[in-house]
Prior knowledge:
Strand order of the largest sheet: 1-2
Distance between the termini: 72 Å
Strand content: under 5%
Order of helices and strands: HHHHHHHHHHEEHEHHEHEHHHEHHHHH
Number of strands: 6
Amino acid sequence: RRSLKATNAAAVTTAPHARAPAHPRASSASRTRVIRRASTERVFAPSDLALDDLTALSPLDGRYAGKTAALRGCFSEFALIRARVYVEVRWLQTLAAIPEVVEVPPLSVEANTFLEDYLKNFSVAEAAKVKNVEKTTNHDVKAVEYVIKDALMTQPELAKIMEFTHFACTSEDINNLSHAIMLRDGVATLKPEMTKIIDALTKMSVEHAATPMMSRTHGQPASPTTLGKELANVAYRLARQRQQLAGIPLYGKMAGAVGNYNAHMSAYPNVDWQAVAEKFVTGLGLDFNPYVTQIEPHDYMAELFATIERFNTIVLDFDRDIWSYISIGYFKQKTIAGEVGSSTMPHKVNPIDFENSEGNVGLANAVFAHLAAKLPVSRWQRDLTDSTVLRNMGVGFGYSMLAYQSTLRGIGKLEVAADAMAADLDVNWEVLAEPIQTVMRRYAVEKPYEKLKELTRGRRVNAEGMREFVAKLDIPEEGRQSLMALTPASYIGNATAQ
């Protein structure tokens, strides 16, 4: 650096008008500026690509489309429109069954058949009509109403009562019931994937109920267990969350603009509209919520999403544990012909399925956590912040499904390395310090814990050293022989029985 300064000084003295060589720091800053300037320029020009698996914005509809296809019928835009049409038609049929609503007489067999056929045959093409109308209305539910009315006009009896489509309803009367129906279908689609993981773990837990394995607490060797018991622990946790998910009621309302049946009663004051609404909601297979504003408050949704989130968190916990066990050799992974583990290291067999699951759980839970926190909050009797959020329910379900499939695929590749587990146990005889000091306590040996601590803490103790210690204990022969027969592999408590 002194030499560089001297050179620069000489250059300035001998040639006052010449440019001095750039200081290394200045040169580095210049290069940084060039890099930053270049990084702001687009490499590819903007383009309007037609939608397919390669051009989809979300990998759920692109790379992973085939793996999440079963959820399209639950959470797609088409699924939402179809559910709204279903609720609107059922409400019209309900009105026709109320004697006091004389302007909507009981429907004939022909009229009901027309409506049932319309629901049964509701297609993507018919839903596309709704989207086309929405371009004018800029209101999705009103567009549904208009398209239904157009269909009713083709049946003379229904044409006379078409203005009772969406009668006394606010959009949220239709939406909340539609979302509940969609969630019911979504849960029904997701639960079998949950069950596959539970079943796979349960099967492995039975097969390896007696396979001894070192426990690790704080990452350090601890009292031994069995592989089967540890897998059963995960299966039980997952099954509990699945059971809770099945018990969450799906609520609905049909109470008008602020939950008081104002419009209903202004037209037909002698009808018990709350009773009508309760019968209607329960008739859809949902639970009736009698206390609402313009919206059903979404508390049950928060409970549902939080339960799936907990299930996912247990899956993530399992993914990380298996990843770690693979890294220390407790499991091998079956190789698949043609698969590549690394683009540069040919020997690699990476635990990619568990890693993929972990990543997808993170995405799913980020969505579910926001849904659960946001949806129960609405300004006064209603604001619109829930609307756009609810359109993303399927995103959480989609990433959950990907995670479950990846975990299940990873489980299917596992080969238990029982020999590696046994070898690990055999070099950790110090874990028997726990039963030895416990038996010493039984027979009133002075300072049992402290003596074992002195022998084992931070030290390796082999079988010979541990048995030599036991042989010198002043305890009954029966207790001594029991400890002499103990090994790390046999010190597993009731793990096998569990």
